[in-house]
Amino acid sequence: MIEVKHLTKQFGHHMAVDDISFTAKKGEILGFLGPNGAGKSTTMRMITGFFPPTSGTVIVGGNDILTQSIAARKKIGYLPENAPVYPDMTVNRYLDFCAEIRGFSGAAKRRRVDETLERCFLTSVRHQAVSTLSKGYKQRVCFAQSILHDPEYLIFDEPTDGLDPNQKHEVRLMIREMSTTKAIIFSTHILDEVDTVCSRAIIIADGKVVADDTPDGLRRRSAFHGSVVLTVQGTAPEGLENGLTELDGVASVSIVEIDGDRRTLRIFPDYPEVPVADRVIASAVKKGLEITSVFVEKGRLDDVFRDITTTTR
Amino acid sequence: MQNGNFLRNIWIIMKRELAGYFGSPVAYVFIVIFLLLTGFFTFYVSNFFEAGQADLNGFFQWHPWLFMFLVPSVAMRLWAEERRLGTIELLLTLPVTVTDVVLGKFLAAWCFIGIALSLTFPLVLTVIYLGNPDLGVIFCAYLGSFLMAGTFLSVGSMTSALTRSQVVSFILAVVACLFLILAGFAPVTAMLSGWAPIWLVDLVSSTSVLSHFASISRGVLDMRDLLYYLSVMVFMIVVNGVILQNRESA
Q1: Chain B stretch 146-165, residues whose beta carbon is closer than 8 A to a beta carbon of chain A
Q2: What CATH number has the domain bearing residue A259?
Q3: How many domains does chain B have?
Q4: Cross-chain CB nearest to A97 (options B16, B85, B97)
Q5: Residue A147: what pLDDT?
Q6: Which residue from B72, B102, B108 is spatially nearest to B247, judged by alpha carbons?
Q7: What is the ipTM of this complex?
Q8: How many domains does chain A have?
């Protein structure tokens, strides 16, 4: 378990990270969200022991990153932002170095390196200098060094940044594959990623935690959560909106779009947990309208994200 | 166990650094320039052959001045480059201490300069072929030269940790090395001795690498000279570590 306790970092007069606390358990993939400059990277750098916090601390698997730094670092795999790797080294040499410094030697080292190369699809470029590789490969080399020693805790700072959609997909698959036995914290500003990968998301803004919830939980905070979006075709009789408003459990109706005799309505329920879709449909059918589409909005993460990160300012 | 890890970590970091030097053109350019310059000064400025003496004074007397520029050019990339590339973030989050990394990098660079220095061996063979030199003196001079390079390197490594820019690091290191040389440079001590008390002149010149290098390269191995070099190096390396430990950004 990674326990982040009252972590604070001050640069001069600027509070980059302001009293952040959270925990990440094994089996969890924790998405770390926030606008640029919110303090994501600073927090990750303190968790990995790159620089010490102004106050507070981090406990990594029972070891304090400040007082038992080496023991704590051994359990962490870290992929920094922009995936830095020595450009003059070959992929093989670099991973050799990483394996040696992590305490492997001889046959165990070779096996480790070979396995990791294979897992990250790097075997074909193993003898190439890192400077000759494309961005996606470089990212993978850096990813490889972070999982080489099979750490219990993984910290990824924007692991999919700058990758093409296929590569993004691969990285996400790898992250999910590893998550069963590890605790993974990764930062991103791609909200789809949170949905497809994370079991929990923390949103920070201005150095503070403003939300800590599951992706579904976050979505529930959306004003649109539970609303029914209905598109009907046909000469809409006057009062369709009014008729819907009078239904049990419907709070209000708004018109999203009118296009000729096709109109799209959004029906907000009184309580998002109480479904109203069946009654809405029945009512529309009774009015002799053709329903072209209907769905229940789950709420959009980007709306929630924008709401949370802008209102706190 | 801690001790074993300490040496092992330093060794691994050193190996990686050295591989890095020889994996890029920097190493070869440095070695060629160093050999060309020492050759030029020894043969054309000191007139090695015409001097008719079986010693290498005409070779070693230039070392402080050459190292003043060449050593900072090796040292400038030590930390500034890591910071620029961002690799420092991985290096300093590995399960190693700052001391391991600072020493590993320093020793690798020192070792590299040692390799360049040892490639001047044909000069020793020449002087042996031509006459009967005192090999003890030559050995001492090489040792003194190597220690002086280490001293300059520790200064350069420290200035490299201060900044992300290699150019700034280089200039700072050259200026610092210049001070270390000039404090014992004859014209400067002569200027001082005109008015300053003798103890002050001695004090100033004793902070200079030049006076310590002079006595070693005459073949006098004095503990005080060795102590001088080692203490400057230790001091600079400690400062280097403190700077890294207190850095606030990548």
Answers
A1: none
A2: 3.30.70.1340
A3: 1
A4: B16
A5: 93
A6: B102
A7: 0.85
A8: 2
Helix %, strand %, coil % of chain A (to 5): 35, 30, 35
Q: What contacts B195, CB < 8 A, 6 or more positions away? A: none
At A55, which CATH number? 3.40.50.300
Q: Are residues A204 and A282 in the same domain?
A: no
pLDDT tens digits along B88-124: 999 999 999 999 999 999 999 999 999 999 999 998 8
Measured between beta carbons, which residues in chain B are less than 8 angstroms from residue A45? 89, 250
A161-210 pLDDT per residue, tens: 878 888 888 888 888 888 888 999 999 888 888 888 889 999 998 889 99
- Tens of pLDDT along B182-220? 887 878 888 888 888 888 888 888 888 888 888 888 888
Nearest by CB to residue B86, choosing from A73, A84, A89, is A84
CB contact under 8 A, A84 and B94: no
Are A34 and A75 in the same domain?
Answer: yes
A304, part of any domain: no
- A25 located within any domain: yes
Domain of residue A254, residue span: 228-297
| A122 assigned to some structural domain | yes
Q: Does A73 touch chain B (CB under 8 A)?
A: yes
Query: How high is the pLDDT of residue B236?
Result: 95
The C-alpha of B244 sits at a distance from chain A's nearest C-alpha, in angstroms, of 9
Residue A68, C-beta contacts closer than 8 angstroms, at least 6 positions apart = none
> For the residues of chain B, what is the DSSP string, one character each?
-HHHHHHHHHHHHHHHHHHHHHHSHHHHHHHHHHHHHHHHIIIIIS-HHHH--SS-HHHHTTHHHHHHHHHHHHHTHHHHHHHHHTTHHHHTTSSS-HHHHHHHHHHHHHHHHHHHHHTTHHHHHHHHHHS---HHHHHHHHHHHHHHHHHHHHHHHHHHHH-S-HHHHHHHHHHHHHHHHHTT-HHHHHHHHTTS-HHHHHHHHHT-HHHHHHHHHTT---HHHHHHHHHHHHHHHHHHHHHHHT----
Would you say residue A77 lies in a domain?
yes
CB of A66 within 8 Å of a chain B CB? The answer is no
Mean pLDDT of chain B: 88
Whether A34 and A95 share a structural domain: yes
d(CA A276, nearest CA chain B) in Å = 53
Highest mean pLDDT among A85-89, A215-219, A300-304: A85-89
Q: Hey, is the C-beta of B248 within 8 angstroms of any chain A C-beta?
A: yes
> Are A185 and A44 contained in the same domain?
yes
Domain that holds residue B91: 2-245
Q: Contacts of residue B97 in chain A, CB cutoff 8 Å?
A: 69-70
A174 with A281, same domain? no
Q: Are residues A29 and A169 in the same domain?
A: yes
